[in-house]
Amino acid sequence: MNNLWKSMYRLRVHSRNHTLAYGKVFSASQSTSSQLASSTGETGATAPPAKEKIVIPTRIERGPTDILMALSATVGFDPTAPHYKYHDDPYLIPTSNANKKTYALAQEAGRKAAHWIRQENAKLFRHMEADPPVQAFVPTMVYNEESQVETTDLQQLIDSVEVKDAILVYNLLKKNGIEVGDELKQQLLELLCFYNHEDTLPEQFIEERWFRQGTVGRERQRKTWKDFELAEELFHGLESKRSEHYCAMIRGMARFFQVEKAWALYQETVEKGIELDTNTFNSLLHIASFLKESYDKRWDLVCEVMTTMKQQGLRPNLGTLNGILQTVTTIGGYNHPRTYALKTLAEFKQLGIEPSLASWYYMLVIFCRERGPVSHVLHDIMNEIEGKEFTIQDPKDTFFFVTAMDVCRNHLHDKELAKRVNQLLHQGENYNLIGDSYKESIYYRHYFALLATTEPLDSFLETYHLLVPNVYIPEPSVMEDILRSVEMNTAIEQVPLLWSHMVQFDHTGRENLVSLLLHIMVTNQPSADEPKHAELVQRFANIAWDMWNRMEERATAPRATTTTGMPGPMLGDVLLLCARAGDYEKATAVFTKLSKEQNSIVGEPRIDGLREFVNLCVANRTPSVALQCLQYCSENGYPESVDIGRHIFNSFTLDQTQLSKIRSLVGAEAVKPKQNAAGSE
């Protein structure tokens, strides 16, 4: 926010300086003109007035956010700051993926509630907010079966894309015997075919689109076209069906995967000699894989459609190219799809049609298949498009970046190419083509997982600190890769930071992550000789204690899925870390848990933790607790029990009761006194 005010101040100062400079030039021109006038007055000659031509510049269309975008451009992108949609308050800035979605949608739900209140109490909102009135501030008209409507009402509903109300008003017009013109019927038909008789989500609800679009895109492609509804009724009720009627129906049915009826209507146009437009043929190309099962017949169908387009004198466009490439992606094998794709690109290049990001996305799908040979086509694509800025031209444009990063990680394992892709994403306004929240998350998942396994740790952590948590929050799988990189580089000084992030990101319930972090702390014991590592022993103990408390709270929660808490091996690691730090109270609490609930705890702790706990008991002079630990080891069949019993016997002054307990647990060998060399002789 401070940066924004500074930018506004700079613009204001710049504008003031510009005005002052303009004033100086204007005054100078006035003085010059007065000198000229005086000089001409002395000679008596008068110069004819110069004719100045006024040129009015062409009006530039401005959007409602153009000024804000200009101000934002002066500040630049700051990845360390939270998104502007979140409140600038530490307690209201989300630090997990779930909270990001919850906070954003909660704020948008408030806007929806305000819209609902305004709509339900329209009579209370009759005051004018602006002149001329802004339609977005005015409550919408409510229609029912008794409403008196005219064709103008239907026209307004079509223009405002209110599908359900448009259907109701048309039925009312038909019921009241009011004639609807052919042009208005055509507009209604196109509206119904495009939206499939359903209202769309208003454009103002950006966050819901951002979080919902990823779910919609992952749904299985299936027929959702509503058969025998008003669209088909309108079409079949037309006395003379023209080209635009067939185009609307075919494109609508193809869009919602009613492929049989769409193809039947296309065959009907061929028989009747009705010409279609290019976009209608493109929609047929997109459903070619649903019409034909065998790969050869799919390509033959593409050739058939393209031949018909040529006969009708239609010029292909970008949609045609992408429709063909999408069909090629459904063709199996390796050689034929690649050959078809390269031929298609070459022909469209001769026509002067430049591929979009969707075209390159299809090329990646064709060349970089999961079980196919390795292809370096992404290098060629990047050489072609690197440094360029793109705008949305096809809905599949948003699939390019996430697919390219997937190829870099899983197909090529090339971190340098991944950095080039990431640089292209942040070129100009290209980030608008990331798609939605799901694609953004998948993109950074691939990027972080690749860098975590290929980059030096220090270099990777620079990227990590730059983007986490405001731009990206690592998923558990990515966090596991990061922890393994820390383990491989023995960078134990990063453990406290990563644990704090795991707490923020709600990863503490992931047993595999907690177990891995415990393993790192146990196997990489900080050296007491190094000052920076000396305090890590205590910090590791605090982390382990925090882990145990969190898992215990989760096990005792009302809706807990498990009631056992930590398994035995993890409890042993917590015991070991607490004992290393010399925290007798915490270590005793962990051991008490192990001892009392050993029948319900899954697994057994490692002997290292128990042995370290006995050493801690020796340091704190508590032989009774040490004997309890010996009893636990004996009951669970640890082979090292004899050594632990002997260590207890040699470290304490025990009474007869305690000695007899050691004998009963591990045998008399553990309580035999050591003999010196002379005694043995």
Automatic annotation (TrEMBL):
It comes from the Eukaryota. PROSITE patterns: PPR. The keyword Ribonucleoprotein applies. It is found in: Mitochondrion. One of its GO terms (molecular function) is rRNA binding. GO terms for cellular component: mitochondrion; ribonucleoprotein complex; ribosome. InterPro entries: PPR_rpt, PTCD3, Rib_mS39_PPR, TPR-like_helical_dom_sf. Keywords: Mitochondrion, Repeat, Ribonucleoprotein, Ribosomal protein, RNA-binding, rRNA-binding, Transit peptide, Translation regulation. PPR repeats lie at residues 242-276. Pfam families: PPR_3 (PF13812), Rib_mS39_PPR (PF22330). One of its GO terms (biological process) is regulation of translation. Belongs to the mitochondrion-specific ribosomal protein mS39 family. This is Small ribosomal subunit protein mS39.
